[in-house]
Amino acid sequence: MTSQPVELSRRRFLVGAGASAAGALALPSLWPRYAFATPGQPATGDALVVVFLRGGADGLSLVPPFSDTTGYQALRGAGTANSVAVAAPNASNPAAALDLQATLSGHSFGLHPAMSGLKGVWDAGDLAIIHAAGMPSSESSSRSHFEATDYWERGSASLSVTNGWLARYLTSAGIGGALPAIAYDSAVPMSLRGNKGSMAMNSVESFNVEGFWDAGLGNDALSHVYTTGTVDPLVQQGADTLAAVALVEAENPLQYDTHAALYPADGPGQWLGQGLREVACLLRSDVGLRIACVDLSGWDHHDSMGSPAGGLTAAFAGGLSDALAAFHQDLGSLMNEVTVVTMSEFGRTIGLNGSGGTDHGRGSAVFVMGGSVNGGLYGNYPSGPLDDGPEGDLEVQNDFRRPLAEVVTKRLGNATLSQVFPGYAHAGDLGLCTT
Hints:
The chain is an alpha/beta fold. It has twelve helices and twelve strands. The chain has one domain. Strands 1, 2, 6, 7 and 8 form a five-stranded mixed sheet that branches. Strands 5, 9, 10, 11 and 12 form a five-stranded mixed sheet that branches. It has a two-stranded antiparallel sheet with strand order 3-4. A hairpin with a 2-residue loop joins strand 3 and strand 4 (107-111). Helix 4 (116-123) crosses helix 10 and helix 9 packs parallel to helix 10 (312-331). The longest helix is centred in the C-terminal third of the chain and has 20 residues, at 312-331. The N and C termini lie far apart (45 Å).
């Protein structure tokens, strides 16, 4: 609410509400980008929470192949003063991996030492990992943040696909309601564009139409202008916005904010944690939310990644882990009806650059978390030692849509896979979740 009255025209209201050319609606507040099911109707499918690690998260740091001494360890500077290599498990070494006791293509894998929170989720059997995942080079090998992010969020590199994969899921499954999907951001992400019910927010508390001394009086006045059932799509968007605001106000999601102490209070994980915390509140309030998108930006670590015992990458890995583990603990048994998926536009180069960092690469790691997830390490991974090669990449051996497609068909329900991922030929489920 502003301290001075503001004249809010019809055009300004719709712009403020974030109406996009794609038909998606972005509201003036509430944090993450989400996907949710209603706890009262588990048969309708899980709520889906998509966490996008923007900037290109280094899967080789998050899930290091620590046994690859002549490839990964050597290329990451093991044994040198500038090493960013995660060492083999050793309880007395703070830079050592947390042993997953999982092997793939002859390699042994662990989690980054800062990720003890997610190690607990792994031990509980609720975490699946798909390494060397990304967009197949046959479609695109782009290392442009803009292009690669766009392809992941559209679920395709084809220029003929102009909306987002989450928007297509909502349409395919026939999901509506006042608040089917939200993005914790200032605008609806590409993944939700094309669904008119998707909205963006900065926080539950500030989720309202701004520009009036009294928000309630302002909403009441606008309700006489933006009426439902109209043939005018802009007027209908305004009505839908007001309906969502009214729903959130009536259900008062923050009454369920009873586990704030679980979430990170500082560092990179603070922002993700605040978003997931509000997602948990919305889920408990049973407003019908099906999709939530939450970002953790800042993974473009070209410089000074630092030691796994306490550098830049360690701070981000720890923040991600702590926030996800807190969400898992916060929801408890409700995690049986929630699936969380992480995404990142690409991974990092295998070898270090001259600035103690890594450059834009290809394959990264995808995490899938939930009460109906079969914990484990899935998919393919290069055999033999990693080789820096001509472009210095961990090659993509797992199409990122493969785990997403399994989650859509097994956990979200009532969706047509060919509509969600047009042009994608599903190679079969990995077995990472149950129906």
